[in-house]
Amino acid sequence: MGKGAAWLVLASLLLAPVSDVTAKPASAAKPKETSAKEEIAARKQLYEKISMMTGVSWQRLAAIDQYERSMSKAKPKARPQLGETVGVFIEEEKWVGPLNPDTEDHTPLSIKWFNGIGRDGDGNGIVERTNDTDLLYSIVSKIAQYGLSEDDFAIGVWEYYHNHRAVKRIKQFTDIYTAFGKLNLYEHAFPLPVGDYYSYRSTWGTGRSWGGYRIHEGTDIFAPYGVPVRSTCYGIVEVKGWNPYGGWRLGIRDLNNYYHYYAHLQGYDKKLKIGDVVKPGQVVGWVGSSGYGKPGTQGKFPPHLHYGVYRDRGLVEWAFDPYPLLRSWEVAEQRRLRAKK
């Protein structure tokens, strides 16, 4: 080939769209189904790998991934699953860069040129928005550029999400993972010791009049004064204190980004404070009849635990009926108790 012809070939390559000269990843074969245990092991392995690459602890990586997963579960249509095991969702425009003409760009240099956040995490020379390693590496690299100290990392989280809730949740999730040192933290317990001294039914949506008309956002579990109230989950104490409606109440945040609300308590475990990490079955307080008035008001209704669950959608929280969860946790715990006999 002469020099003139060679230059024509080179020029055509240089002028061609980036996507035409870059090898696109082959369409992935349908992934085989994996068990929950295998998925958790794969995630832990990925966190440890990216931790070595970035200097970010695996607990923080897990917290970011879990926060992303909780947002996708709350908004499944707006945030479809991209990877196989991680929960990270990054918009296409944000991934390749807002001014990038090639929305399916897979080239590291051009994505960086257009200020996209997509990065090649596994070193194969291709940036893939459906690749678990690339997804998690990209979001963590963006956040960690502000530093790895607690304050600097919080700034990075804020700059990425522009949402104070995200900063708080990722810190809370990191604390939970750090306290227990493992990922499999999804066991649950019934909020009272399983037995025959309590009663409950679905009371979701029934009317309430004290303090103005409102609906009942939870399930009332009636039991004698002083019956232990237990954490239903692995979580972190987010709220503790008096509420005119709920009396002495407690709020616990879990890794699904659910807020577990315990109201009308007689009192708390004295050692428990905001920011403490708890586990399923741990006693956090006792059944009472506090509430419907100023601090200390008692006895305006029979003793019971009001239990509610709220899901964080990023900017707001909404309640949903906890009765099905309570029934499933009660049955599961009854089975465990029978198996031990």
From TrEMBL:
Residues 1-23 form the signal peptide. Keywords: Hydrolase, Signal. Residues 215-313 form the M23ase beta-sheet core domain. InterPro entries: Cell_wall_metabolism_enzyme (IPR050570), Dup_hybrid_motif (IPR011055), M23ase_b-sheet_dom (IPR016047). Gene3D superfamilies: Glucose Permease (Domain IIA). Its EC number is 3.4.24.-. It comes from the Bacteria. The keyword Transmembrane does not apply. Pfam families: Peptidase_M23. One of its GO terms (molecular function) is hydrolase activity. PANTHER family: L-ALA--D-GLU ENDOPEPTIDASE, PEPTIDASE-RELATED. This is M23 family metallopeptidase. It comes from Paenibacillus thailandensis.
